[in-house]
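Re: the 228-residue chain
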Amino acid sequence: MCHVIVTCRSMLWTLLSIVVAFAELIAFMSADWLIGKAKPSNSEDVDNRTGGSQEPYHPTLGIYGRCTRISHMQLSRRDTLCGPYAENFNEIASGFWQATAIFLAVGIMILCAVAFVSVFTMCVQSIMKKSIFNVCGLLQGIAGLFLILGLILYPAGWGCQKAISYCGPYASAYKLGDCSLGWAFYTAIGGTILTFICAVFSAQAEIATSSDKVQEEIEEGKNLICLL
């Protein structure tokens, strides 16, 4: 018989697992890893109404994507074009970024699988006599290691030609040059930290769902058990 067990700790772990997976996925897909040096204003950037120039635009560069602005003949029309600069894996700008993409992709796939499984932990608390929380926590720890490897290798690719075109000639491995880090990089770091927090917190979720109070509720014949 399936017993639906919901506790504050197990629900919090489930929500955190889902948030972490989505945060890492969005960061990976974003082009806002590097914010390039400002593009100088030109004659097409003059504002008709004020006669002054618009603020310089900062293009952004991701692991496999980029965002840049295209100015048209009409002064009021400026399009920001975002999309992948690499049509296939081999066209990613740096071998280090290729490794980063692999490590992050593996870590994110594990996190997404755990997030999917975590939804069903309310009904299923064990697999083959092993706690599903402990198994998921172990997988989250492994995913966190993959994410760390990817984030460590990413700055080593700042010396590639693509990064230099955005960050200037002084850009090199682990040196940003004229660039700055975008929100996607910080989101990936924050998600990695939360991944390890989730891995540790999974043990608390397991303790909460197998406590004596839960067992008492089961013995009383209750199928839906909600505990604070």
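The domain at 4-35+93-226 is CATH 1.20.140.150 (Butyryl-CoA Dehydrogenase, subunit A; domain 3).
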